[in-house]
Amino acid sequence: MPVIVVANPKGGVGKTTLATNLAGYFASQGHAVMLGDIDRQQSSRAWLSIRPEQARPISTWDISEDYVAKPPKGSTHVVLDTPAGLHGWRLNDTLKLADKILVPLQPSIFDILATQDFLRRLANEKAVRDGEIDVGIVGMRVDARTRSAEQLQRFIEGLKLPVLGHLRDTQNYVQLAAHGLTLWDIAPSRVQRDLDQWQPILQWIGGQPVPAPAQNA
């Protein structure tokens, strides 16, 4: 049972957007997916409460910021949304559950500086170095062709962690979230550009290597 943890100690970087849409993808593939939320704000749980009954099911379980529980039996895939300020025992307990960690990161220098210690901590974890846990970074609200994306790539290169892809700044995520939906709950033609951006992330989630980004001539 793969457990995908979405984590970044900085708030407002898109963790819940990434977590809910990843859960939506697993649900669209017919998996028994569980979406856990140890964030005090419980954004993912609130989102599930407005998810339409006719949408593919995504389950949750009782979990709190004071106790990181093991996912219940019967689930085949787990996505765990985490709070800002994740550190100490909560981070340690979360790492014990994780098979893969997705780190959403916006390309501003402020976000990069606020996240760099966390990324170094992950890169130096024995389980990460030994290949027991995979860590990947997703550029959020960014155009891959901009200097901001290049700045993000340069920073990450020193940590030897892969940038899996970039998700653009679009109202599609906002409007779908307001109805408890994900990219995989509507006609692909309406969000094809966004689905295309997810392909390298899903490839990595499935255990396949992500091609290195093309270098500018």
UniProtKB/TrEMBL annotation:
Signal peptide: none annotated. Coiled coil: none annotated. It holds the Pfam family CbiA. It comes from the Bacteria. Residues 4-182 form the CobQ/CobB/MinD/ParA nucleotide binding domain. Transmembrane segments: none annotated. InterPro entries: CobQ/CobB/MinD/ParA_Nub-bd_dom, DNA_Partitioning_ATPase, P-loop_NTPase. This is Cobyrinic acid a,c-diamide synthase. It comes from Herbaspirillum aquaticum. The lineage of its organism: Bacteria, Pseudomonadati, Pseudomonadota, Betaproteobacteria, Burkholderiales.
